[in-house]
Amino acid sequence: MSRDLTINFNNNNYVAKYNSQSGYYEVDLQAPETGGIYNADIKYTDLFGSSYEDTQVIQVLAKEKVKIETNKVFMWIFDYNDFALKDILEFYDYEINIDEETNANSTIKVLKKTTAKANDIVVVKKNNEEIYWGIIDNIQNNDGEKIYNYTLKYITNLFDENVELEYKSGLEDKIRTVGIEDFLKETIDDHFITNEDTFINRKYLEVRVLTHTKLETSVSNVENGIYNLHTWMTNCTQNYDIVYNFFVENKKMIMTISKEERNKELLNVKAQPIVNYTEVFETKVVSKVIVKTKEEGRYVLYLLNDRTTTTDMNNVNRAKGTTERIYTEKMEDARQAALDVFKQNSYNHMVNFTMFDKYIKVGTPIAIKTKDSNILDTYISSITITPKKSIDYTCGNIRINFIDKLLKERNN
């Protein structure tokens, strides 16, 4: 009989016990949550003090998690002032729109009267998964009926407020030197969390920056030194892929700001449950941008056939197209402003489809294989969720430049 036999499995040590009836050493191992191939490192010491080591391979089969779907949708309502939970409501009927480009409203119907009021914060969950964060725009009840109609706006409307650009010296320079995410965080902190007017502060809100994207640009929607923060945040999403996510942690509402690179979803119109697929094509492209500045003259940028740009008007590889004239106050912002115009050279915002039993977040890049076996690279710009099992999707400007199509037409 041996003196000692130990096993190290999944970074845990176990002592095996000898079974005199079977003649084997036996041990109960705690299986890891993730299936796969694991090594069991065995150490054995006999009565004479001699030690032996061996490794045995153990395959762990993970049990598939069963997801029970009831399709029930609930809304958590949090107080606008202190984030205290007011109520949890089940929906009678609903249409949830997540679309920051058009700032579309969502509408829900419930059969319960609550103390909810305008600007309260809501979280919508379907099958216990968060699908929507928003704020209450208004609540209507007609002639004492049992149905209460809620109109919701997407959560970023929390920052639908006009703010001053130059309230703090050097703040806008952070976009170039530190990151556009850091500029947004400091602006939100100063106006909504640590404002000198403490009465309006939202102490339950915490903003975290996950990435730092330096850009040669300035706030674009400024008039007389004032701009709408929500509009600028939406511009950052559309032009620079800046996203805002929300979750609850330790009774606080956490907001993260980041440039998010999401895994691409692959969709096949012929092989997957996709219906009502429509697409509209255009061949209009801006190939010349004239940027006028306040005091420093103008800047002209031209688009080339290989999708690069030049300031040389006589370059033989210039792409044909239309001319766009825009304005920016500072010459140092002119090039980025022109590039932002060229970035919009893409198929028109008219790709829509309906999909069953699949939820894809807004902003997710997708590649769609059409019935003609063409591959379209685009992203989800808005979704509509209703009591039906299907979800309606709208794609943003398809990220395939028109120039390839124009060159092909010329060659033909």
Proportion of β residues? 35-45%
What is the number of E strands?
28
Query: What's the main sheet like?
Result: 13 strands, mixed
Helix content: 10-25%
Distance between the termini: 86 Å
Unreliable stretches covering 5 or more consecutive residues? 399-412
From the alpha-carbon coordinates, what is the Rg to the nearest angstrom? 29 Å
Mean pLDDT: 84
Tell me the domain tally: 5
Total of DSSP H or I helical runs spanning 4+ residues: 5
Outline: extended
- Structural class by helix and strand composition: mainly beta
Features:
412 residues, single chain, 28 strands, 4-stranded antiparallel sheet, 12% helix, 5 helices, mainly beta
How do the helices and strands line up, and which of them pair or pack?
Layout: E1 4-9, E2 12-15, E3 17-19, E4 24-26, E5 36-45, E6 51-60, E7 73-78, E8 85-90, E9 93-98, E10 106-110, E11 121-126, E12 129-140, E13 148-154, E14 162-164, H1 174-177, H2 180-193, E15 205-209, E16 226-228, H3 229-240, E17 242-249, E18 252-259, E19 265-268, E20 274-279, E21 286-292, E22 298-303, E23 309-310, E24 322-327, H4 334-343, E25 351-356, E26 365-369, E27 375-385, E28 390-395, H5 402-411
Parallel strand pairs: 15-18, 19-26, 21-24
Antiparallel strand pairs: 1-2, 1-5, 3-4, 5-6, 7-8, 7-11, 9-10, 9-27, 10-13, 11-12, 12-13, 14-16, 17-18, 20-25, 21-22, 22-23, 25-28, 26-27, 27-28
